[in-house]
Amino acid sequence: MRKNFKPAYEKLGKPSDSDSPETRELRATLFGTLGNLGKDPEVIAEAKELAEKYLADPSSVEPTLAQTATGVAARNGDVAFFDQLQKTYETSCESADTGWRVANAGDVQGRLAGTALA
Question: Tens digits of per-residue pLDDT, 66-84?
Answer without folding.
Answer: 999 999 999 998 888 888 8
